[in-house]
Amino acid sequence: MTATHCPYCALQCGMELAPHVGSITVAPRMFPTNNGGLCQKGWTSADLLDHPDRITTPLVRDAKGGPLRPASWEEALARVSAGLLSTQQHHGQQAVGVFGGGGLTNEKAYLLGKFARVALRTPNIDYNGRFCMSSAAAASIRALGMDRGLPFPLADIAHTDAILLIGSNAAATMPPVMQYFDAQLQRGGRLIVVDPRATPTAKKATLHIQLTPGSDIALAHGLLHIALRDGLVDEAFIAGRTSGFAELRRVVGAYWPERVERLTGVPVRQLEQAAHILGEASTAMVLTARGPEQQSKGVDTVLSYINLALALGKAGRPLCGYGCLTGQGNGQGGREHGQKADQLPGYRSLANPAHRAHVARVWGTDPELLPPPGRSAYELLDALGPGGVRALLVFGSNIVVSAPNAGHIRQRLESLDMLVVADMVLSETAAMADVVLPTAQWAEETGTMTNLEGRVLLRQAACRPPEGVRTDTEIIAALAAALGCGDMFPHEPEAIFHELRAASAGGVADYSGITYQRIAAEDGVFWPCPAPDHPGTPRLFFDRFATDDGLARFHAVEHRPAAEEPSAAFPLILTTGRVMAQYQSGAQTRRIAALAKAEPQPFVELHPALAASLGIASGDLVVVASSRGRATLRARLSPDIRMDTVFAPFHWGGAGSINLLTSPALDPISRMPEFKVCAVRVEKLTLPDDSSSVSA
After folding, report:
1. Tell me: the pLDDT tens digits for 351-360?
2. Helices (H) and strands (E) in the chain, counts
3. CB 634 within 8 Å of CB 601
4. According to the model, what pLDDT value does residue 19 have?
């Protein structure tokens, strides 16, 4: 049996893998995050290891538009390295881009960032975590001085008195975490869930606040207005541990309950009930997820909720605090070690000369040679083609399905001189590539992940990859060698982690005291951990916040409309999300029989009254359209959604890809696209009933 972790969400549930003849068996493991629990995705996670869709040899395309054909590794790597060199010789170093993923191990994320900046000398690297965690990260840094998804272990959730959970359907997206919320309710705690849908998570709540998508800032300000009016704020905490409250007090004075009811659709009585639940509790937590974060005002939205936690004195002490429920498997570690456009390992800033100097010393290069910060994820993709990035390497991301305004992004990918994709299956993005490089899966390689608590974990290999398949780190090291700097790029995970520890030393995300041996012995180690004898840091901010003066910062943000509001042509609000049986772009889960059976095709959820007004019945094929594109989906009727809102999951490509519709409007700070709010219309499809047009 090999002790390891699930390959999917940021809970990173502990599991054990047992090899048998021709198969791998998954068993749950008692680990602090999941306590022996697994969801359906975890139980079936090994089914993809021997799937017939696995790519086991490199594929190359001899001409644009021609078919992919098998090739040797020598030919494929030579094709890639020659293409990269030619592109840079003719168009400059910045004409090559790299796109990573929040599912890559810490070692891969670190090596990919180093590869872009040392081997390619390009500023153009970012990753799909920009579409997931960037708003919460930016807000946490501004308000609290640092970004770690949860500043406390998951187990603390069970013992706090009140929780405000905003925009998370954890019961579907990370089911084993619900044990902590269930325990909190069972011991008499109260749970408030903010969501435009009455999800399975919301149905467990003491109070469900069903707001209009995009109105979160008004909601948070309304709750704080009531708390000030009714004497629920902690004036001593505000005076002793924060700064900037006077301006915020002035701003929230304009958010009286009746006005907030008009802006959010939330009744005054619910606003008052929620404010008193939080304000009167001895301990409380405020937790956000993608709902408030994936907006063109996502940073300000998260700041408004952090303001509420700080004003109530529910931060910086036991069983209290603001936290973010990270989504992707390594959404936390993936943004700490250099694959983000503006960051270096250890959560250092690429724009900081001292940070550049430290990392350059570890890398054995001149800090002046490190490129400046590059474009954010959507801006990088939008710049593909002539006049911009002409060659792109993709690791761990299925851009064609996961990016907003996906039809436009497909066109940009088609305009590239060269697209290289490293993947285990022929995803929608890999199918467009000029070169496809087959990679190992999670159970076939060792590496570390950092879960939503900031706990660094060790995923250990349980079996060898199929013959002809290489790991991502082997591919990166081989490409570096072809570009003339192979001696700077180890490919063994533990050697890479040793280098990462040195690069992160002294940084915000300091891993220098963490080793593979410690992780295995201690069931993970919480960063920051600056020395081998340091115990790690499960809980943050008890003594001081991570700002220069130790004080948390209030931010007097204002409510503003979404970038795109309903109109006569597009009268409804579309919001997107996940379902239990699928994950991210679905490239993996759609190939697993049990998961495909549980959730076989894309759908749009409508309120029955809305459906009746449009002449739509349950199961009908409908077209959902925005100003950017159209998707063909099955109608699913539910009284659990607002009548002005429709919901669709984003796990499918093709005609059922909902990201053909979503808005590329970006948050001005985090550069997060506005996945959660866009204007659409819904029409019954009058063509013959043909479910194959929307199948995976």
Report:
1. 999 999 999 9
2. 23, 30
3. yes
4. 82
Decide if 522 contacts 528 (C-beta within 8 A).
no
**Residue 68 reports pLDDT greater than 70:** yes
Question: Within 10 Å of residue 142's Cβ, how many Cβ atoms?
Answer: 19
Strands 207-209 and 190-194: parallel
**Averaged confidence pLDDT in the chain:** 96
DSSP 565-629: ---SSS-EEEEEE--TT--TT-TTGGGSHHHHHHS-S-EEEE-HHHHHHTT--TT-EEEEE-SS-
CA atoms lying within 13 Å on the CB side of residue 623: 11
Q: Please list the alpha-helical segments (H only) found in 483-515.
A: 493-504
Helix axes 298-311, 134-144, angle to 10 degrees: 40
> In whole angstroms, what is the distance from residue 194 CA to residue 270 CA?
11
pLDDT at 687: 66
- 28 - beta bridge partners? 15
**How far apart (Å, rounded) are the C-alpha atoms in residues 597 and 49?**
19
Q: What is the 3-state secondary structure (H, E, C) of 157-169?
A: HHHCCEEEEECCC
DSSP state of 388: S
Q: How many other C-beta atoms lie within 10 A of the C-beta of residue 247? A: 11
Count how many residues are written for the chain.
696
pLDDT for res 688: 57
pLDDT tens digits, one per residue of 597-635: 999 999 999 999 999 999 999 999 999 999 999 999 999
SS3 512: coil
Res 692: pLDDT:
44
Separation CA 86–CA 34 (nearest Å): 49
Encode 593-616: b = buried (16+ Cβ within 10 Å), e = exposed. eebbebbbbbbbbbbeebbeebeb
Element (H, E) at 228: helix 216-229
Report DSSP state, residue 690: -
Phi, psi of 523 (to 5 degrees): 55, 40
- Taking a C-beta distance cutoff of 8 angstroms, is the pair 294, 671 a contact? no
User: What is the token pair recorded at 30?
Assistant: 């008692």
Give yes or no for residue 284 having a pLDDT over 90: yes
Q: What are phi and psi of 635, to 5 degrees?
A: -80, 135
Q: What angle do CA 508, 509, 513 make, to 5 degrees?
A: 115
Q: In this structure, what are the phi and psi dihedrals at residue 62, rounded to the nearest 5 degrees?
A: -75, -25
Give CA 637 to chain center in angstroms: 28
Per DSSP, which regions of 356-427 are E strands? 391-395, 418-423
| Nearest by Cα to 116 from 97, 130, 89 | 97
pTM above 0.85, yes or no: yes
Residue 20 has pLDDT above 90, yes or no: no
Strand blocks (E) in 638-692:
645-649, 663-666, 673-674, 678-684
CB atoms within 10 A of CB 279: 24
Q: Which residue has the tokens 């936690």?
A: 309
Place 695 in a pLDDT band, splitting at 50, 70 and 90: very low
| Beta bridge mates, 420 | 393, 435
pLDDT higher than threshold 80 for residue 262: yes
Q: Which residues contact 129 (CB under 8 A, 6 or more apart)?
A: 101, 102, 328, 331, 334, 335, 340
